[in-house]
Amino acid sequence: MGHDMKQPIVAYHQDDKGDWVARLSCGHNQHVRHNPPWQNRPWVISESGRKQHLGDSLDCKKCDNGAPRDW
């Protein structure tokens, strides 16, 4: 099992609270909140910002843990 599996963002959706969730190419979902000072991601608030970050890779903890796909 590898560590820090980087997976590109392929799409986004909002959860039932309205928080943005990135869909990763591995089939896992990962929240991408703008929640300073822990996560500083102001780009997630705007559609143009999200589009600019499509294809960016995030560390997928679910891949690291061998979790089943979310979608």
How does the overall form come out from the CA principal axes?
globular
Helix content: 10-25%
Number of domains: 1
Enter the CATH topology name.
OB fold (Dihydrolipoamide Acetyltransferase, E2P)
State the major sheet.
4 strands, antiparallel
CATH classification, class level: Mainly Beta
Low-confidence stretches: none
Q: What's the total number of strands?
A: 4
Total helical segments: 2
Structural class: alpha+beta
What's the average pLDDT? 94
Compute the separation of the termini in Å. 21 Å
Strand content: 25-35%
Second CATH tier, the architecture: Beta Barrel
Read across the widest sheet, the strand sequence of neighbours is: 3-2-1-4
The H/E string reads EEEHEH
Brief descriptors of the model:
71 residues; alpha+beta; OB fold (Dihydrolipoamide Acetyltransferase, E2P); 4-stranded antiparallel sheet; 2 helices; 4 strands
Structure description:
With 71 residues, the chain is α+β, with helices and mostly antiparallel strands. The chain has one domain (6-62): OB fold (Dihydrolipoamide Acetyltransferase, E2P), CATH 2.40.50. The chain is built from two helices and four strands. It has helices spanning 47-52, 61-64, and strands spanning 6-14, 20-24, 29-31, 57-59. Strands 3-2-1-4 form a four-stranded antiparallel β-sheet, with no helix packed on it. Strand 1 (6-14) and strand 2 form a beta hairpin. The two termini are 21 Å apart. The model has no long low-confidence stretch (mean pLDDT 94).
